[in-house]
């Protein structure tokens, strides 16, 4: 559970780039309702949040032309309504588990690039950018539980987290939810990996 004070601080400072692994339930199709943000008004919301696990993507890979581009709705990142989004797969993997309600954010803020190879090239050429974002990330997660498990979404996120924070945090790695894999297999893989850090 997160305190009201810390929740508000996170919302004010990071509401446009961070979010929570909470989604509305799917409707008739697996992808339906991923952009339904009505859950933020749940009076019991704070009791569901801050599990001690923090999911970390590499960067804003795509805005899909919606509110994740920096609109006015807080916590909308990772909750896209775009027809080709794969956010639904992460919802399916975590729904009904102890990881539901975890904080989720991108390591590299406000840098939108869908090609992870281009991201890799950019950060090799601009190491200051990584250092700056690592410092900002640590400030961001300071509002959450102490000694969190960082869950890297994909290999490049894992590589950066291990290189810069591996001496201070436990770091798990799972496939990114955009990886070509069925949602059932994805859930099985995710839960198997995270169980190693849940003791």
Shape: globular
| SS-derived structural category | alpha/beta
Helix content: 25-40%
Calculate Rg over CA atoms. 16 Å
- On the 0 to 100 scale, the average pLDDT is 89
Q: Counting H and I runs of at least 4 residues, what is the number of helices? A: 7
State the end-to-end distance: 18 Å
Q: How would you portray this structure in words?
A:
It contains seven helices and five strands. A five-stranded mixed sheet has the order 1-3-2-4-5, sandwiched between helices. The chain has 199 residues and is an alpha/beta fold.
Descriptive keywords:
199 residues; alpha/beta; five-stranded mixed sheet; 7 helices
Short description:
The protein has 199 residues and is α/β, with parallel strands linked by helices. The chain has 7 helices and 5 strands; from the N terminus they run αβαβαβααβαβα. The radius of gyration is 16 Å and the shape is globular.
What's the arrangement of secondary structure elements?
Elements lengths: L3 H11 L4 E2 L24 H4 L4 E7 L27 H8 L8 E6 L7 H10 L1 H15 L7 E5 L1 H11 L4 E5 L8 H12 L5
Parallel strand pairs: 2-3, 2-4, 4-5
Antiparallel strand pairs: 1-3
